[in-house]
């Protein structure tokens, strides 16, 4: 077995938490059950990884299998990377009958015709997600297995999820290969980025819980039972509290919000001051960047008004994030007499 | 001690408060019922009066203003007919609810008696009919269907969209059922896609204790149909001639019958 392959497998195994190691190796399905049973998972991680490499040696693992292990690792722990979302466009109307083997062939061929030194691996999952791992080389050097990009694509959708590649120069090539393989005509990067891949999928596929009014019988969700109120206490602002709850529910719905870590607003608006103040005689816009960060941004926005920290309803600039499928905004002045600002597309 | 005494007083006060509250509620209830009785008495008098007038055959009609009842009756008739239409739509799998600025539709899908998912569509009416929000899967060509029909014929739009969704749900159901019940008889994995309109898989046929691999390719090029438009069943070129007949028979079966049921009859046949 190649030393590079051995080292790669060893390092990948080291990344996996000890208690989940067996599950991941089983998902890989390269080592047999009997082989896996010979590994003592209670020893030091270093020793475990050495054992795994030894077993792979016995089965003569090559880079292909090691690449699949890497995909499985990233599929199990996708939130360690930042994912960007790309949107493809086409003008054709026919329903596509997406053929997986065609797709793989086209993608690989397109990529390799432009850059011979690439390793391309695929893995399909139950939810129709196709994971692609690309290890990049240069025209003169073999692919570096540690310089990888990952692409997740659901067939017959116009969206592609790409983990921020180390090598920005390879991005156009990657985009071209995707467009060709998916039978689209154009691709552009959306203003949507985050760590949680599933949430990004929820936002663009519109599968997050939205609040729809309908007659259809839905299972009644457990409403919070009002706590036993002491009759001697009266809440002065109970109406306001109820109003806030109602408005919040209309905007955010009942379910859990998709998980985003930040929202960024780039302001290119003019500083609006009293003309007498004359702070800036230049008519240039005041440049400013506002960034909201949170472990779970949308849930925290949802709880702002009930916690009394903001007025309800919240600014539409904040609440439009899942609906507009973006968390990067540019706000410019409206070029008209009205002093309102607008969000550029 | 003092605290015990205070506690006792507090308990007494609480009891008294609860009793007060109960008494108040009783009184409120009584007042409400009395008001209701009054209401009903008035209504009874009114109806008696109407009956009397009719019996006297004055023929003036119950209400003095002839123009009003017609508008009222028309409005009531409109509401009844809309309710009836909504009821009919609900039975066809499309139901709707008026929202402050438009309508929210719910399209439910089913396949051969099994209820599957439902999808929502929030339409706004101003400035022109357009889709505000929806939960339609991204691979259904919603924008194309909307471009064709939404402005001109909302009913047709809903009907076409419902056809797409029901066909998709049906195809997905068949593929899921096949994977769930016959995974041990399928060689390798079932290759499918998001719309479930291209399925490729392999299975084995045993003849005279020899195993022959069969390869199936099902193409559903009609997005509103849950049966394949094109079926290709092929066996290895060196297989005996009788098997090509079997392949043709299977191909025909897949074209006519739901996938999981067709496969069920194939697998039960091969065991015999």
Quick recap:
The complex is a heterodimer of chains A (345) and B (272). Chain A is an alpha+beta fold and 345 residues long.
Features:
heterodimer, A: 345 residues, alpha+beta, Double Stranded RNA Binding Domain, Ubiquitin-like (UB roll), 12 helices, 10 strands, B: 272 residues, Copper Amine Oxidase, Chain A, domain 1, 4-stranded antiparallel sheet, 6 helices, 8 strands, 54% helix, elongated, chromosome (chain A), CENP-NAC/CAD_complex (chain A), nucleus (chain A), centromere (chain A), Chl4/mis15/CENP-N (chain A)
Explain how this protein is built.
The complex is a heterodimer of chains A (345) and B (272). Chain A is α+β, with helices and mostly antiparallel strands and 345 residues long. Chain A has three domains: 3-76, no CATH class; 80-195, Double Stranded RNA Binding Domain (2-Layer Sandwich), CATH 3.30.160; 239-332, Ubiquitin-like (UB roll). Chain A is 35% helix and 20% strand. Chain A is built from twelve helices and ten strands. Chain A has helices at residues 3-15, 21-28, 33-37, 45-58, 63-76, 100-114, 171-182, 197-205, 238-252, 297-304, 316-319, 321-324, and strands at residues 83-89, 118-124, 129-136, 148-154, 159-163, 186-194, 262-269, 286-293, 328-333, 341-343. Mean pLDDT of chain A is 85; it is low at 216-222 and 336-345. Chain B has helices at 2-55, 67-92, 142-149, 154-182, 241-256, 259-271; strands at residues 94-99, 102-111, 114-124, 130-134, 186-191, 198-207, 210-219, 230-235. Among the domains of chain B are: 87-169, Copper Amine Oxidase, Chain A, domain 1 (2-Layer Sandwich), CATH 3.30.457; 181-270. Chain B is an alpha+beta fold and 272 residues long. Chain B: Keywords: Centromere, Chromosome, Coiled coil, Nucleus. Chain B: This is Centromere protein O. Chain B: Belongs to the CENP-O/MCM21 family. Chain B: Its main location: nucleus.
